[in-house]
Each structure stands twice: as structure tokens, then as C-alpha cells.
Design brief:
alpha/beta; Rossmann fold; 2 domains; five-stranded parallel β-sheet; binds glyoxylic acid; Glyoxylate reductase/hydroxypyruvate reductase
Length: about 350
């Protein structure tokens, strides 16, 4: 008999096609991409389902799992991030979880490089000046920023995405790559096509990415990119103390999760010149209210969580999420499953 599934968003067509053609599920869909399913509606719709395909705007917590009831055996999220899932609760109930790493690595790395250059070379300010009459003449120090050549790039959380960013930045003549991580992860080397060398350094395509303490990372980085998952260990790790160690000429980039940053402390660091600029693809909350103080700062570039937003990648994420769901419902190994 068919498994019952709820899909919390009108996901890109490739995933829907897979579900429809599977002959395995009977699914209901929140048929909009413009607004998330209201919580009340979601709690109703999940009653008795076997599987749930969700996106990162849905909190999958005790309340939701209770509402779903004992049939629920698979959650498949169309995201690499999993901070919207109560992992402990899922584990205790024996519910399996699929997610979508790898397929979005290229898109996220490209966007991160774009955001980094946009922030460091002040492109948003520059286009604004050009079209609003600020372009009086060519000026010697007007709209100057910071260049990647000869710089030190710091990566907080060296996973697939962090490495993909480093690979793309290396041709800009970066002098040094450094990283820090919550724990050394030698097992990662194979996944990211790297060698794991002395002192926990990774060697990726000829260049060395050196492991340093967080203290050293903040002190030495000219560009610091957050590439870690949001967990209890990384929550608001970018706080007053963190920013106070960074160079006044440094650029902070976050394409991971807004929750790794204390935004009041970031505002303070940006408005007092403690750091030179910040590029954020993620905030707390999302959407960030248009009245938020960070929007008043010229040296802060804010994007609406679009790092994985290419047609190719979003369709690949949709397809992977659909396949994970179907495999999980058949009690087979998923293509990408979170180990709880
Ligand atoms: C996006 O932020 C994702 O987790 O896929
Ligand atoms: C982490 O989520 C990664 O793919 O780097």
C-alpha cells in the first residue's frame, strides 16, 4: 500500500516528478513557494503520515512529532543545514533523517566568493553612488576596499563547503589559508579530495590549509568565512570577544547560519570600525526586519539566504530530498542520511 507523505513546500519540479512517478507514495503538498505552511495547518497535515519532506523554515520538534504520531518514520529535509530539526527527539523515536549535502557545495561556494568580493570591494555602495549622483569625479581613495592578493583567508569549519571556497579563492593569489574547527576531522580528507598532513593541516590541490586555534584565526585573518553547522557549540561563537580580536581591516563573511553570530556584537564591531565589513547571507530572524540596525550600515551587505539558489542546485536538492524520502520509507539506506 502507498505511504502517506506531507510535503511542506512547493519544491522544484524534479523532486515532485520523482514522488509522482514513484508509485510508492500518496502525498499532499503545501502548494506555495511564497509563504511557508502555517504552523497550525502543518500540525494538522502531519497527522498519521509515514514521511515528511520539509525545508528549513519548518521546526521539526517534539510538538510536531507528537502531532504526527507513531507512523512517522522518515524526515527528509531539502537542506544541508539541520538546525531546524530536534535531533535528540528524532533519535529517541527512531526516525531516520535525510538531508542534501554535496549537491549544493558548488553553488554555495560560488555565492560565498561573490559575497566576499561584493563586500570587500564595496560594490553595493558603489552602484548606489553611481546612480544617485555621488560620482563627482574619479577620486584617489574613494570607495577603496581590500584585495585578496597576498591576504590570509580564514575558514571557520573546514568541511566540503569551506574547502570549495578555498579552491575558488586560491587563484586570486591568496597568500595563506588557515582554518579552525571544533574538532580535527582527518576522516574528511577523502570526502574533500585532500591529504591530511602534519599538525592537522589539510593539503588541497597544492596548497596547505593550516589548523590554528580560534584565537589565532580571528587575529590573523584578513577575510574570515563562517562555514560551520549551527550547533550548541557554535551558537553565537562570533561575539564581542571574537570580533575584538579581528583586524580593523578584516572582512567577515557568513553563509552558514545566522545563529553563529551575536548580531548586536556584530553591529557594534561594524559601526565602531572594529572590523571593515561584513557580508551575510543568513541572519536571525529570517527575514531580517527591514528596520534592523544592520541595514543602516554601509559596510554590511545582507542577502536573503540565497547561497544555494541556482536552478541546477535547487532542482538537485529537490530530487535528492525526494529520493532520500522514498528510500527511507522502503527501509533502504538513503543517498544522504544524517547519522543521529
Ligand atoms: C541552506 O541553507 C541549506 O541548509 O541547505
Ligand atoms: C557542510 O555542510 C559541508 O558540506 O561543508
Amino acid at each position: 500500500s502507498l505511504s502517506r507523505v506531507y510535503v511542506t513546500r512547493q519544491i522544484p519540479p524534479e523532486g515532485l516528478k520523482i514522488l509522482k512517478e514513484s508509485g510508492q507514495v500518496q502525498f499532499e503538498l503545501w502548494d506555495s513557494d511564497d509563504v511557508p505552511v502555517p504552523r497550525k495547518e502543518l500540525l494538522q497535515k502531519v497527522k498519521g503520515v509515514d514521511g515528511l519532506l520539509c525545508v528549513l523554515t519548518e521546526k521539526i520538534d517534539k510538538e510536531l512529532l507528537d502531532a504526527a504520531g507513531p507512523n512517522l518514520k522518515v524526515i527528509s529535509t531539502m537542506s544541508v543545514g539541520f538546525d531546524h530539526l530536534s535531533l535528540e527527539e528524532l533519535k529517541n523515536r527512531g526516525i531516520r533523517v535525510g538531508y542534501t549535502p554535496e549537491v549544493l557545495t558548488d553553488a554555495v561556494a560560488e555565492l560565498t566568493v561573490a559575497l566576499l568580493l561584493t563586500t570587500s570591494r564595496r560594490l553595493i555602495e558603489a552602484t548606489h553612488e553611481a546612480k544617485t549622483g555621488g560620482w563627482g569625479t574619479w577620486r584617489t581613495l574613494w570607495l577603496c576596499g581590500y584585495e585578496l592578493a597576498n591576504s590570509t583567508v580564514g575558514i571557520f569549519g573546514l568541511g566540503r563547503i569551506g574547502v570549495a571556497i578555498a579552491e575558488r579563492l586560491a587563484p586570486f593569489k591568496v597568500k595563506k589559508f588557515i582554518y579552525t574547527d571544533v574538532a580535527p576531522r582527518p576522516e574528511l580528507a577523502k570526502q574533500i579530495n585532500a591529504e591530511y598532513g602534519e599538525e592537522n593541516h589539510f593539503i588541497v590541490a597544492q596548497f596547505v590549509i593550516r589548523l590554528l586555534s580560534m584565537d589565532e584565526l580571528t587575529k590573523r585573518s584578513d577575510f574570515l568565512a563562517m562555514c560551520c553547522a549551527l550547533t550548541p557549540e557554535t551558537k553565537e561563537i562570533c561575539n564581542k570577544n571574537f570580533f575584538s580580536k579581528m583586524k580593523k581591516t578584516s572582512i567577515f563573511i557568513n553563509t552558514s547560519r545566522g545563529g553563529v553570530v551575536n548580531q548586536d556584537d556584530l553591529y557594534e564591531a561594524l559601526s565602531t570600525g572594529q572590523i571593515a565589513g561584513a557580508g551575510l547571507d543568513v541572519t536571525v530572524p529570517e527575514p531580517l526586519p527591514t528596520s534592523h540596525p544592520l541595514f543602516t550600515l554601509k559596510n554590511c551587505v545582507i542577502l536573503p539566504h540565497i547561497a544555494s539558489a541556482s536552478y541546477t542546485t535547487r532542482n538537485a536538492m529537490s530530487a535528492l530530498a525526494a529520493n532520500n524520502l522514498l528510500l527511507g520509507l522502503r527501509d533502504e539506506p538513503m543517498i544522504k542520511e544524517l547519522q543521529l
